[in-house]
Write the structure tokens for this entry.
Amino acid sequence: MTKRIPGLNLVNPIHFLAFGFGSGVGPKASGTWGTLVAVPIFLLMQDLSLPLYLSLVAVITVVGIWLCDVTAKDLGVHDHPGIVWDEIAGYLITMIAAPSGWLWLVVGFALFRLFDIVKPWPIGVIDKEVDGGLGIMLDDVLAGFMALACLQFLAYLFA
């Protein structure tokens, strides 16, 4: 069952994308659902050259600042939990140059969710202090980079 969100219009492509193709409307764990949406996106991108992958992630992130800003203003809520485009970008950052295989998809997923939920310094500070679309995106971008560092370290040890 989905919840009614005042001001949300999933026919609006900006809202549809910001809400992770609709994954953010569920009643619970919208960030986890948004991250799950990122998995097939990553699977489509994983065989790209590193420069092309990085370019796409940069575009997804920069466009996300605008998408999240517009949607948050339309809803009248800063960083509404249903806005999950930031989770999609964060997971794609986590998976930069990740080893292939389902194990690494899952490890990357778990690491990103851990950093996104726990919000260690400086993620938590940025989450509280930076407003607008930049603030919505930046904490997840940082969580993605922290998860990326951990994933690459684990890959160095075990892959």
In short: The CA atoms of residues 63 and 85 lie 10 Å apart. The longest helix spans residues 132-158. DSSP finds seven helices and no strands in the chain. The chain has one domain: 35-158.
